[in-house]
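DM from R.C. (forwarded with permission)

"hey, sorry to bug you on a friday — could you get me a structure for this? deadline for the figure draft is monday and I only need the backbone to look sensible"
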Amino acid sequence: MDNNQSIINVRLAIHGEDGRSESVGDIVAFLRRSMGLVGLVFLLLMAGCDSSSKQRASDNTDAETNLVDSDQDSQSDASSDSVTTQRMAFVNEVRPKVEAFCGDCHAMPRPTSSTKEMWVEEVNQGFALYGESGRNDLVVPDYNDVLKFFQFQAPAEIKLPSSIENYPKAKLGLVESAVRMPGNRPPGVTNVRWIDLGIGDSPSLVYCDIGTGMVKAYWPGDPQGQPKRLATLLQPVHTEPCDLNQDGLTDLIVADIGEFNAEDSQLGRIVWLKREAESESFEKIVIRDELSRVADVQAGDFDGDGDADLLVGVFGWRKTGQILMLTNQGLNDDGVPQFEEQVIDDRHGAVNVPCIDLNQDGHLDFVALLSQEHELVEAYLNDGKANFTRQRIWSAPDPAYGSSGIELVDMDGDGDQDILLTNGDSFDRGAKPYHGVQWLENDGGYPYIHHPVCEMPGVLNATAVDIDDDGDQDIVAVALLAGNDFQTLAQRPTSSVVLLEQVATGEFKRFQMEPQQPNHLSVEAGDFNQDGKMDVAVGVFLRSGGIDQPDLLLWSRK
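My reply, with the result:
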């Protein structure tokens, strides 16, 4: 079955040969039987789509729907105006039905967020996912109407703004150096933390590398030193210091995602790296396995009994994902903590779950960034017994916003915790002009006040740091792009590591720390060389090639 015929058959499956609508369950059953269309739909659900799928989408759009007209048709201006008027009249006519269906469980998608060509896959995906959800409570609009609604308002191509170009170089006397553990695999650094492990004379840069599966540590104060392997896991993506067994030694709790690529797998784990007494080694103990893509684990006393519980952000994918609380029940005879598990939130897409007493009532709360279609930031307020009440901090304006990370920080110096947010996940839908760094200002109520700071396609992480010693918080942000987006921006005078210097409250000047190498997932700041000045570490992330590339790039102040 060719792809054009697949689209025709999908319409027949949806509307029936006599025009009657079938159930969405029937539609999904048909999609499963039609391998050509299933390939088209589910390729989008993987990270990105290749050029051949884009061409098939274009063929389907032009040949079957006749919705994407050339911008250079040889028609008169009057005729063009007439077509535009007719299309907008149609859009306004079907808008209530489309918005009721497509905006029911998340923000209504903005037609301008994808190209006309891409909306074929997007609409197919939307119908398929609704059917997979098992819901039947919505009025399902006509497939053609939905596709036309988005395509009539979509651009032919996504253009990235010129404002991301030609940043001046940072002039803070920054000296760049590189850190690399020798090996035969490219670095895949997903997380960098400045942690005092109680080893050596200073804290160390503890980082996760999914290229090797290792958790490593590097002591910048030792110029002759090499990174040290602390443990080898599957695909570690986040570490947090803790003392899980209360022996006075610093342990690490690790989020092991198990499967980095988008899958509903059950390979994710929570791993305790227990510091061994009288040793600089760590014992690997799996606290919980058979989870779907664990993105974050935080330790804290959520029930007020004096020991460390675990808060777990399970990103998952389509059918899996949740936020879990593992309440510490004490040590067993082997000295391993035992936990009682409860689901705090059954939604997928948890990226970060940082902990803090947000309302200063003496109980440990947390904030969660949920991506996927949710694209929101929420506060979870604790009653002291690990029962949580949710408060909406901020909702993104589009389900394809690409939320990628948060950090809790007092950006404006008023004594409360704001949120530094990045949205630059480009692996499903490519780089977007609205990708960037955002500041969510805590003014004492909900929701927080949103302030855009900087456009930055592909930005995946940012950290606040007073890099210029003037008493306020600046920002360092890093980007990760792949495929065509990488090549496109590498040919433009763009920056992959950006310094945002705060010159007045909420006002930032942009400077370049690294040009045109968007290979970064993580960034950390600290006084690495203990000279009283703040430094910056950035992880290098490559999925292929580059076995001679460094694990970390360091920028130190003179």
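R.C.: lifesaver. The chain is about 20% helix and 35% strand.
me: no worries. The longest strand covers residues 282-291.
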